[in-house]
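ok so i was messing around last nite and threw this chain in just to see what happens. nothing serious, just curious
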Amino acid sequence: MDHFLFRGGVLHAEDVAIADIAAAVGTPFYVYSAATLTRHYQLFSAALAGMPHRICFAVKANGNLAVLKLLGDLGAGMDVVSGGEYLRARAAGVPGDHIVFSGVGKTREELRLALEGGIRQFNVESEPELRALSEIAAGMGLRAPVALRVNPDVDARTHEKIATGKSENKFGIPIARARAVYAEAAALPGIEVVGVDVHIGSQLTELEPFRQAFGKLADLVRALRADGHAITRVDLGGGLGIPYTRSNEAPPLPLDYGQVIRETVGDLGCEIEIEPGRFIAGNAGLLVASVIWLKEGEGRRFLVVDAAMNDLARPSMYGAHHDIVPIKEPAAGTELADFDVVGPICETGDIFAKARPLPELAEGDLVAFRSAGAYGAVMASEYNARPLVPEVLVKGDHFAVIRARPSYEEMLGRDSIPEWL
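result:
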């Protein structure tokens, strides 16, 4: 469920008409619903009720400071994968001991940054990273809390570009080698082993891959305890999928996901950590655009909008589907026609949808791309010298711009011409 509904024939974000936001900030723009973000976080909290747990929002899904503060104020920790994301979480008021640092390529500078600022744990992904962290932490007179990320070789049954738990993926330490690496970790100075981490992919729409991965992790925890390691946390990653269409698509709910957790790792006596991103933010956001032209092609019609692949990369990058709806609700029985919905970028791949059934639209009409709150604005670029689009947060009947659209002058001002040119 989200809070983007038609009222009086006009699409609203909670109690604010989308057209009113467009009039104030121009198009394209992202808009997020505070009520939806809150509800989705609370669904996970309810799913894990009765078990010690920490819900760490995956900052890579949506890194806006206002979104992070909203979730942090609800009690969320943060899962970060870079020094910049760590600083974003801290700037949003999230304490260091609520932040988990993941990622396969942490630099020495990033490891030191998090040690200096405070960290809940590092999810370490390789022996070289472990040894570097030991050296840095010991040199600072600290002990770095560590969970090793293991690769369980489980097929997540998702898009190949967002699967992370198979043996050919770059993430984690092969589970067959995990006990040896834990033995090394326990012997290293500056390292405190606290847990085990696993993450098998994103946009999972079945529970069985989770069950397989969590079962392997539970077996590993028992073996590690037999080896003498004090494992007090299990980090289960994220990955729960969302419905990207308004059809019969129905991925599992957090309550079902929570039941799998109870059945597989609930008897370990560990604190449960999860790192949802898409499920919390995905359906909490829209990308709103204006129609520039209706262009007649050879045997097809193009709806050219002012949003583009630099604003929302998922369709071009993954072939991802986003429902597209006019801001004005079509009357019952309105005839639909097939349109290719495209952006103005000078790339053939700048396509949001092919042969998408839509009502007749005209220049200046507004359309919304649903389910755009995750991996939307965070993946945007200024390709073709297009300014990043603004982000807006709605709560009840009011809204605020939480990231402004930069001017061309600001864009140009970031470049410099050397004096010898």
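not much to say yet. Residues 161-167 have pLDDT under 50 and may be disordered.
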